[in-house]
Queue: 4 jobs
Job 1
Amino acid sequence: MAALSAWRHGSDKLMAQGTRYLSTRVGRRIMALFVVSAMIPVLVLAVLSQRRVVAHLVEQMDARLSQTSKSLGLEVAQRLIMVGRVMAVRASMVAGNGAPDREGGILGDLPPGIRELQYTSRNEIGRMGFGATLPGNARLQLAQGRPALLDGGSASALWIVVSVPGSGGGEGLMWGRLDPAYVWGTEGGSSSLPSGMNLCIFSGNRLSLFCTTPIPFLVVPFDVTLPTTVSVKLFNWHLAGVDRRGAAWPLFLRYEFGADPWTVVVSEQLNDTLAPVVAFRKTFYLLVGATLALVVLSASWLIRRSLEPLGQLKEATQMIALRDFTHRVPVLGSDEFSDLAESFNGMTEEIVHHLAAIEASHDIDRAVLSELDQESIVDTVLSRARLILPWEVIAVLLPDQEAAEAEWQVAMMETDGVARRTKLQLALTLDLKGSPSDRMETQNVAAAHQVMEALGLRDMGSVRGFPIGAGTGRGGLIITAGGREGDVTEDAVHLTDRIADQVSVALSNARLVKELEAMHWGTLTAFARAIDAKSHWTAGHSERVTSLALAIGRRMQIPEPQLELLRRGALLHDIGKIGISASILDKPGPLTNAERDRMNEHPAIGARILNPLLAYRSVLGIVRNHHERWDGLGYPDQLAGTDIPFLARVLTVADVYDAMTSARPY
């Protein structure tokens, strides 16, 4: 008992540990692998064995049913033949004694298998319930001197008819109604049917003549199209709520009795036959349970051994995810898990190094992309790159955009951290299209050496040139030189190449922004001139008002972003005059009231024109309200005082001043 208790305690502890590790996905996978690997062979073996046993039992059942259906069918046939022969003998006795007495005599003495005897002439067939004449097969059978079997619609209405030739009243027929108990072999409650089997006999016209288990009258469990030869048909049958296996054998009666063949069906319950399989299943379930328990215990032990170091690795990775790079995995043992722990610790060291480089690189990216001036971009790159790159000299070579093609600007920083600038006249050939390794090993290296020599820096050891893309014009280089051999790594080379690419993007962006800004203001100026050109009285008005408004704004120390809005609004403030007739704008004398009202609509027209343009929504107040007055008598909204937008008030001063100092006929 003590040993059993100790075993149970140990197994419970093992299961508890296994359950804890099963909360992990890897633990569940290992457990599933164990269970599948152990259970699939057992299940496959059990299924195959069960199928083999079931097939063998069904095969034995089929042989038994086939043999029984044939033997029972032959017994029925023998009884019918015996009754037919007795009827033939009785007919010959009647023929020798003349017309029989229907009330008794020979007809009243019933032979075995006959329940009733009747005699009719050929003209009295109708009173037997088979019509005025016999079926063709029966007439042919009687003409040949053989008995005929007639089916009256049920087992109690089966008749054997024989011909009575040469009787006194002419040729007649003797009718014998069959005794079903005799025909089926169930006289006295005895039967040759084996225990557990069911016997059914069907007539040729689909009628159930006899069945030991009651069934619906017209239910036929098999294909009624029987073969022309004597063969057994096996089938499954659901009879009286029970699944059965059956065998059907055709009992041919054409030759002896001129009747359609009967079908003898013998069936047996499948459950009785498959009882050994049911017992096998119960035993199998117990076996599966025991196997599963053993597998789970073994898998729990292995999972614990495997997942404990994995749990430590998981904890370490979570610490790294929380940016704690001081955590290390203990190296225990000498298996693959210890190798993994060593690799993980080495990888952590590499991550620390790379993160430091990436952080510095991102600082360079943010600083570079926040600048739009070329000098500021170069100064930022040099100061930040000096902190993370191992070379003694770092220089940025860019073309002098305002000088000849052979002139270059060089900004250089050495280990002292001081930036120096100079201009060089050199004929350089740069490769800006190849792969990074090609670009650093061909023309760019030669160009970097030329620059270093021109700067008076010789014997600097390894010199490299990292290309800056052609988006800057003719392109440029980040040049590196010197540095201790152990400090210059492939990572440092790739980092420098990435910085060069980022400088290319930053310089290209700065150049594009300047071009877009110039195009933007050029477009607005051209638009303003097009507006002013509609009337020769207002030529140059928008540009003069813009210059005057900006001068006022600067004197008032308005912030630069607000001055940009004021500049846009001033250039476009009279855009609404596009909707004013030239006859009003160019009228040489005072305007009528109607003309004055129409002229006063131009601020609102201008606001409507600019409203769909999202970029000019911020200047709609300037355009619409630059003709409002402090006393509220302006137009179009009659705003007063500080309700008038501030920049619109500034523009109003400049606009009124230019109007008063210009020749305006109206």
Job 2
Amino acid sequence: LERFQREAEAVARLSHPSVVTIHSVERDEGVHFLTMELVDGENLDRVLERGGLPLPRALEIAGAIADALAAAHQQGIVHRDLKPANVMLTSDERVKVLDFGLAKLAREPADEALGEAAPSMPTEARPLTDEGLVLGTAAYMSPEQANGLPADARSDIFSLGCLLYEASTGTRAFSGGSVIDTLHNVIHKEPEPLADRVPHAPMQLHWILRKALAKKPADRYQSASDLAVDLRTTRQDLESGADLLTVPPHSAPALEQTARPRWRTILGVVAAVLTGVVILAWLFGRRAADPTSATAPALSIQPITSSGLVPSAAISPDGKYVAYVESSEGRQSLHLRQLTSSESLELIPPAAVGYWGMTFTPDSTDIVFGRKYDENPSGALFRISALGGTPRKLVEQIDSSASFSPDGSRFTWLRKDFPTPGASSLMIANADGSGERLLATRSPPEVLAPRYFTAPSWSPDGGLIAASVMSDETRRGEILGFDVETGAVAWTSERSWNWISRVDWLGDGDALLAIASKDDEYRAQIWFVPYPRGAPHQITDDRRHYRLASPTADGDSLVAVAEAPTSLATLWSQASDGTGRPARIPHSSMDGRFGFDFTADGRILFQTIEAGELELAVMNLDGTGRQVLTDNTRAEFYPRVTGKGKILYHTRESMGAELRLI
């Protein structure tokens, strides 16, 4: 009687086309009953016994249920027993939610003037059956219900997520050999990946299910109305025939490793100063049987996009996705793009932060990225699902992106000014950020970090971590292989470079890629570094200045980021009256890019590149009499000649900048 009376009072207050209507509460010869709307149709559980539904229909049904729940929640009513048996599909394909028999008033009806949404006050989870069993069907209960904890409107959202998963796949999200087993899986397990059941399901559906089925209520949709909006949008996108992002099946077989000629694709994001950003593709090959071969590969460029806003990117180990940062008006955002699609998904909206590199986890499901901002200038590494969600902080004090061990259980990164000021260290932590420890340290004049886009790389066999080390004394850099257990140097590259930053192992472990510049050359290129022996050689040789090269697990493709050639600078002269033709002043292609001025005696004062560093120099108008004025480890740029003949210029050390006179 208690349950009956509650159902009558709760449902009678609702008026919604997707909620069954209660006309009256009756009693006849001591029997209490309800007179309800007659629904001509079939229960959803009977429909799902025949298998999953087409995705547009599954989304349509779930959207109607979400609208019904939103109306109930607005009245302070939580269903608490949502399952396919309590949903009917009418003969004219409408949806009706039945049996609010477990409904409980969560609070007073919302103030319509305030437009209040889902209730926040929890209901009492008091069991009403004889043996203390928690009410509701186990496979559709929320984790908090399964634990006998208070359940609010977000519990209904979890149940709807279970129903949507089953409608999409034809399989329950959670099941077991007994009620206890099922409840255990609800609390502790995740459903089988949607892509394994529904290949080519849109990423939006993965994201909706991930958010609706989050174990913690705070991580779910906070209102059924928000869920309804996402369901409608995804259905509309599906029905429009748009090229949607999809997630590949987790069970897809791994690519075979053979001794065939290895063709690799480099997907390059070219960040230009004066032009747009272009993602390029190059095809190149090398003989797998001869890892020491120095044969330069042939390159073929295929432009893919050109946004003009991308400073950093990474490719997933499976080669399916590219994560990238967009930077505009002092704000940066994180995005994901499927390489077979022209559509991108915004994972994190624009904010006044700086991203410090990124990488995918070995299974390609999550992205780990570094981020710094005013309130946390030392930065932190965060982890976010490739489907979106709330980023989770892993570790703080970071000066590079991360690199994972082959089994994904640990990751490594670089940290400056640790353990002492001026020192820089190679760090290791568990995949969840716990167990942080120092593996190796370099002290001045040797530097691991901070350096431009540098990053370490964990070897495919798990035994070494490779990292580049620069010397402020010799102004040369090399690659070192640090033993993962002891931190000792177990391998050193066969050559050094004028400048070197990021290194990445190729998937078979027979070589690394490095971003480096050769002697007397400013432009950093992509280098192929054989392991354990062989002479390094350039893969690229063009006018771009490369920032990073991020390969896939099989080494068949990589994403590269480079400054476009139009961002390079040269000095030209022309008569002040406009006569004659402009003439280039010979020497470095980077002369004057970061500022120039004229001295009192008519010479040119300019910024240039010497031994990989930004320096100041002077020369005559015809390029003769060139003289470098500065010679230290600082970067000097934007020079100006004062009225007293002094030179005022900027110098940058780490993150700061200052003005100096010489």
Job 3
Amino acid sequence: MGTREDAIEFGRNHVGRPGYEGGRDLEAELDVAERLQQVSTRLIQADDVHELFEQILDTAVAIMRSDYASIQMLDREQRELRLLVHRVFTREAAKSWERLRPVLGTICGEALRTGQRCIVADVERCDLIAGSDGLKTFLQTGIRAVQSTPLVSRSGTLIGMISTHWREPHEPGASELRMLDVLARQAADLIERAQSDKALRERERELADFFENSPVGLHWIGADGVILRANQAELDLLGTTRDEYIGRHIADFYADRGVGEDILRRFARGETLRSYAARKRCKDGSIKHVLIDGNVLWGKNGEFIHARCFTRDVTEQRRAEAALRSLNAELEERVAARTTELVSSIAERERLQEQLLQAQKLESIGTLAGGIAHDFNNLLNIIMGYTLLIQHCGYRGNVSEALEVIRETVQRAAALVQQLLAMARKSEVKFQQTDINEIVKTVGRVLAETFPKTIDIALNLDSDLPPLLADPNQIHQALLNLSINARDAMPHGGHLLLETSITSGDELRRRFRNAQPGRYVCIRVTDSGIGIDESTQGRIFEPFFTTKPQGQGTGLGLSVVYGIVTNHSGFVDVESAPGRGTRFSIYFPLAQERFTPELKAEPDVDARQEFRGCGETLLFVDDEERQLRLMREFLEKQGYRVLAARDGAEAVDVYSRHKQEIALVVLDLGLPKLNGWQAFQRMREIEPNVKALFATGLLSPEIEAEMRRVKVAGVLEKPYELGAVLEKITTAVRSPAARALS
């Protein structure tokens, strides 16, 4: 390409041709060849690009023997030819062709469109540009002939144009054009290199700007750990200068020994550092917490060129995190302390509420004590009278009927005792499906037995009343407190009405705006007493507020009612006026789930023949001698063998000696020496799967929970029917042993 051999070949092809001046022309051709070789050499040596363009243009003029010449580069983004260098153009012509759009109807446009050289021997006779501004410019510049050769890259892309111009009409020869093609190849290579150099310089400038002005610290290090380059952010981070930093080993700037060596080892293994945590020592001795990201730039042959490291200062972040951890720890301590206080406060509040409720129960019993004693004495008189008649007076009536009267009277007395125990019982709050009508009936019976006979008690119950999710003991207590208040408001007698009904939430919202949609169970207690004035109504639910004389009330009754109703998410209302009686209405949100109370008739002994024993051994434990003798005689008649014990210690001793024979133990909870539960625990130590029934008139929640846990055989509530005892004993004996929980 462009060598002396090309020129010699050119000379051979022309020497001896007609009109060819051999010696002079050969010398000129050799000069051209020399020029081409020089251009090729300078292209390889990468001399000054602009000067090289000038040399190419001079060579083009020499080859083509033209008067003018130009090289243009194609700007694809702007779609125009930009003038790089020219020869002998006037200032006006150069300005006209400085940026030229190669549109159709121009010589350059035609060359670019076809990708082929375009030659116009005489511009005045060229139809392509006839009458155009281009023709005027040519003629004003003194140009009569033009040739434009496209410059094509080695990939086949048009990148520019090399053109020559003559003052007179001219047709370039084939040999000239061949030499021009060689030169065009060189010009195309030079333009392509110029474009690559420009792009490379722009990229280098962008990278240098990014490197130097990045807000993140950057530094390059060699394989030996020596710092090769650093930006201003890196220097500012450490408070040092470029001269003090570059050329030093990275280990000199890490606060912890071995960090620099560890980083170099990772780079040598080809690892990429991602958020590598380290501490750097600044020039003033302070420590900065940093995160380092970095990787290695490897050469084509796998050589380590340099490692690029990005340094992020996270000192303030670490301080903030430490402060946050400290605050969190302090907050957790405060929350824990406050939680402990709240738990203690809540526990204390619940304990006080429980004590208050229990005190109210006992106060209610004390209030009813006179009536209870009167009614209980009446029952005892009936029992005593019929017993004496049968024993000593030669009773002439039907003995069976007399005994039935005694039996019914005993049942009434037992029911009264059970009601009193239920009222006094200290029980845990336990929400369950509750039949409100049954509670009202139970309270009504207690009131009928204990209130003065001058008070007429009536019930008006909704027979379709659904069940209520509630604590039955608390509902019982609330209803009893309201009834006692009503009694006290009628010292000379009157009427007391207990009612149940259903009320809608929409209707209730007219009085209580917090009422929710749905239905509510309403319990009303209405009396015909002295009534309550309006000012007093505003305070009746305050604790310890009372209008009764000193010593006749604690002022807690209605406060407890209010607490119970609130605990059930309900509402309480009062309607009253002096001399017109009082009506208390309490509302409870209705449970969605319905239930049907299970009703079981109590069969008599004769109906329980299927519950007879088959010679099994029972251990019956009771401290009441007559009760023990009665049950022994009864159970032996029903087919059982009975071992007896009179206290807990004796029961454990008997069980230890006869454990292989005993099928079931029946214990009273209130035994001397060891109570029934303690005795049972001792028996479980002897035989973990011992079966036991417990007899009691009052069962505490704690013992009840323990019984559920260890799965005892059952509970007999005193006083009990003999038939019920037989059924439970036989059922327990025949059932498989319950596996005790460990």
Job 4
Amino acid sequence: MSRSRRARRWRLLVSCLAMAAAGRLSAQASFRFERISVGRGVSQATVRAVLQDSAGFVWFGTEDGLNRYDGYALKAFRHVDADSLSLGHNVILSLREEPGGILWVGTERGLNRLDTRTGRSTAYVFSAADSVPNNNWIRSQLRDRSGRLWVGTRNGLGWLDEASKQLRSFPMPGIGPQTPVVMIHQDRAGLLWFGTVGEGLVRFDPHGGTTRHFVEIAGDSSSRARTFFATHEDPDGALWFGTGMGLVRYDAGSDRFVRCPLSSDPRLGTPLIHALVGDSTGLLWIGTEDNGLYRLESRTGTSLRFARSTSDPASLGGNSVYGLWLGREGSLWVGLVGAGANRLDQGGRRFSSIGAFTGNGSGPSSPFIASLHADRDGTVWVGTVGAGLHRFDRPAGAMRRIALRGAESVYSIAEDRAGRLWLSTGAGVFHFDRGTEQYAALRSPNCGLPTCPGLGRARLLVDRRNRLWMMGGVQVARQDMPGAPLTIFRIDGANTIFEDRAGTVWLGGRLGLYRLPDDSGAPIRYQHVAGDPGSLSDSDVRSVAEDAAGVLWVGTAAGLNAFDRTTNRATHVRLGNGLLNEFIGSILVDEGGDVWMSTNGGIERLTPTTGRIRHYDVRDGLHSDQFNVGVAVRDVTGAMYFGGAEGLSSFHPGAIHDNPVLPQVAITGFKRFNRPEELSRFLDARGRLVLPARDN
């Protein structure tokens, strides 16, 4: 045996042995699955086949029709008795694309050639001479390099006679007339591989006409071991097979199969594998029956398992995976039994999320984030409703709860020059020593703090002069030094408080934006004025931030404003400018000058120099699309944190990149004179939309 063959055989053995040791049970925290099920328009909950076509559409083969997904909506293609150009049957078993917008659809009653541009289908079934019960059940299909289209049926192997437009049986040693053929593959050498249910694997040389029948797989000749549902040929030329007894790898150099365990956990057993798909780097995705989805680094043997979690809506939607497809943009599309389809962005979670924080020993956990603060040392402090104060060390990924007896809800956090934290709780305002973790209530001669009227659940700010500001529901108080009397400003409905680089304190409330006086005097208010485009877009101000150029960004219940403090004029950013939601709850500005906003529909990112707005939501890894007002912070590293009623999302802006694969544009419908028209009637042979001259 040559040295290269010995080396390849050694890598094969080592990688498969390593899988058992390296397999980890779950990677749920690192990836987020988008669920596309019946509630979003999938025609039936079991998706047996998935394919993304060259136009970018994703097709789901269900048990009640074929669905086309354009990223927003689904369109169903079904059998219609009175329409000979509709699909031949509604149970879809296999999908394959050919040039020209042609989709070959395997159903329970034959093979269909669907022209995706017109929606018209041609059905092919076995001739009367070949017809036996169930042999029009097309589970697998392949057009080989000679141009022959093969089909695997419940009753043997067949091919399409395109001259007669009929399917015909193809007798082959090892494949009897009652043998289901569920897998077809042509390898780099041109050899054809046919996988059966219970009868093993057949390799066929279409040039020499010779066959080889494999009935003992990795020392096992049981019916399950001889069932081959799926295959993938990796970059090294090795063939991986999904069988009824797990994953096996065949190496032509050593002419042997090696069983590759996916996990060392005996509780998971040896799964039946329905689907395999891999990429050019050697990454392999494995869909199982009742055992979830696995991701395998084939060259190192490292595997991760994904399974459905009832407590995590971003987990895999179901544990039986029948279909897999790798999209050009890096997404993995997953067809599930009883749970529709899922989409996984393989970039992982660019946004990290925490969904619950532990409360006191007897109380429940709480996901409701009421306050955030990043201190000078890089620690992020998280205040919750009902679960107290938490200390988060981002580099270590560690979260620790701080016991605050009688003050389990922390509504605001600020830090003074001495490094002490000030906490606004349901029991009043406290100063907290970060080192000793001891705390004491704030007192003032002219107010019975911590229960000062009008300052319940106050928002806090310590300004550059080390003065403590407390913003309540009906008034704002300032304490210039510990123990000093409070200076009171009567402002109703305050939402947020902010200090700019010049030391000016700004307050946002239901009735406008307020510029607070430095020492004494009345606040100056800026509001929305009907008919004045330079006034604020809305008087209900929810958030305020400042960028490096000195622009004051003001978030309202109806849009974002770039406020010029020299002219006191505002420039509006609203739906017409690209926002998807106008309720701006919190604002942060990154090092590059981009403005990040939490809304009631996710997070928006504005690049002021270009006016471009990008949108992020739960599909990108956010814990939710809903966030709490004023609950956002940027730490010393530039990482950002946004809190909501269902948890906390964090990310570094530098890690959030645009998709490098530009999405394709496709016309899915149009209106003529404001009336919807059937698109296929106006498409030419090249798929272009052509209208009569009178309609132009």
